[in-house]
Amino acid sequence: MSDSSITIHFIGGGALNIISDDIAGVIRRLKSEEWVDLSGHHVKTSSISYISAYESGFDKNSEKTIPERN
Q1: Residue 66 burial by CB count (10 A; 0-12/13-18/19+): exposed, middle or buried?
Q2: What distances in angstroms separate CA 56 from CA 1, 16, 63, one per listed residue?
Q3: pTM of this structure
Q4: pLDDT tens-digit map of 35-57
């Protein structure tokens, strides 16, 4: 089982926590697609305010923002 997870924080205050071995891949998908299916949840990427990720081997969460798509 993975010790890595990503928490997606939505505009309006909701959040979704996803456990994944491929944090970088999840972030790549969130940056490039309008809708992403993550663990049975359909995520509309334009509704994301920010994400935070915890990756095994790091002491604390790292906060990442989703840049605007061109």
Answers
A1: middle
A2: 11, 19, 15
A3: 0.72
A4: 999 888 999 999 999 998 887 66
